[in-house]
Amino acid sequence: MTQKVTPKSDPVGSVMVLGGGIAGMQSAIDLANSGYYVYLVEKSYAIGGMMARLDKTFPTNDCTM
Questions:
Q1: What is the pLDDT of residue 65?
Q2: Structurally, how many domains does the chain consist of?
Q3: Does any domain span residue 62?
Q4: Which of 11, 36, 42, 44 could disulfide-link 20, Cβ–Cβ 3.0 to 4.6 Å?
Q5: pLDDT tens-digit readout, 17-51
Q6: Is residue 48 included in any domain, yes or no?
Q7: CA distance linking residue 38 with residue 8, whole number of Å
Q8: Model-wide pTM > 0.70
Q9: What is the rounded distance in angstroms from the CA atom of residue 25 to the CA atom of residue 48?
Q10: Is residue 4 part of a domain?
Q11: Phi-psi category of 27—alpha, beta or left, where left has phi over 0 and alpha has psi -120 to 50?
């Protein structure tokens, strides 16, 4: 569960997150909510990592798209 944190001032610094998978996207969101400028870098043409290649997820068999 993520908490929304409202920054009290203007962003002080910037961060580069390498990898646009699930963990990279969540890290980018958390850092942005903490008040940082975030640059998300992905080597392929689409974000989502391995999760974007899956058809169904375990254990509920929900569609990933």
A1: 59
A2: 1
A3: no
A4: 42
A5: 999 998 999 999 999 999 999 999 999 888 887 77
A6: yes
A7: 17
A8: no
A9: 8
A10: no
A11: alpha
